[in-house]
Amino acid sequence: MQPNKLKILMIGPSESGKTSIANFISDSMNVEEVESPRPTQGVRIVEFELPNLNINGRTINIDIELWDCSGDHRFESCWPALRVGVQGVVLVCSPNTAQAAAREMELLYNYFVSQPKLSAKQCVLFYNCTDDQEEMDSLSLSPTFSKVSQVAINLKTGGNRLKIDFASYITSVLQSINKENS
Predict the structure, then answer these.
(1) pLDDT under 50: residue ranges of the chain
(2) Is 65 exposed, middle or buried (0-12, 13-18, 19+ CB in 10 A)?
(3) pLDDT at residue 9, rounded to an integer
(4) Cα–chain-centroid distance for residue 99?
(5) Backbone phi, then psi, for 73, in 5-degree steps?
(6) What are the chain's domains?
(7) pTM here?
């Protein structure tokens, strides 16, 4: 049974670019409009349709409810509510958050992916690069992330690639849900 709407959380350290990414993949802004970070207060829900996904040979459109979550730990008391009904998790970090990111990503993965028993295929890590030279090598993640897709993204130079990567991730989430329900 195919869900008609997916609840996807986007979470990571403050100032890692989650809101810009959410706005871009939902077509709420163009690449030229990438702004300097403004802290999200709690959570912001962005709804949009992702058309023409190929799932098991069928082309479908899926509604996405993307929960753009604050990286500020003062909102941690909201985490239990955010996690209810989650079907996928996008972890986001960037070079300016890489120092603390490994530990933070582990914490977020454990709480939002492992505890609700999502599969590694229902999670993706976006490393939000701002320059072409930046690589994910500076991010030393634990073996927990060996099965999680890790994608270096750059809104300014690779926006279309980001949309393709996001659609591929959503396809993976849908296939995991279908496998679970069969």
Answers:
(1) 1, 31-33
(2) middle
(3) 97
(4) 19
(5) -70, -10
(6) 5-181 (3.40.50.300)
(7) 0.89
Cα-based distances in Å from 108 to 13, 19, 41, 86, 165: 10, 17, 18, 13, 21
User: Tokens 């090598």, residue?
Assistant: 137
- 3-state SS, residue 107: helix
CA atoms within 13 A on the CB side of 174: 25
> 155-181 and 18-25 are packed helices; what angle lies between their axes, rounded to 10 degrees?
80
Instruction: Report pLDDT digits (tens) over 95-137.
Output: 776 667 788 889 999 999 999 999 999 999 998 887 655 566 5
Q: Which helix (H) or strand (E) holds 90?
A: strand 88-93
Q: Is the dihedral of CA 116, 117, 120, 121 positive or negative?
A: negative
Name the region of 52 (left: φ>0; alpha: ψ -120 to 50; beta: rest).
left
Q: Whole-angstrom Cα distance, residue 125 to residue 149?
A: 6
Please name which of 62, 86, 76 lies closest in space to residue 8, comparing C-alpha atoms: 86
Which pLDDT does position 31 carry in this prediction? 46
The C-alpha atoms of residue 23 and residue 45 are separated, in whole angstroms, by 10
Strand partners, 59: 54
10 Å Cβ neighbour count for 149?
15
What 8-state DSSP symbol labels residue 33? Answer: G
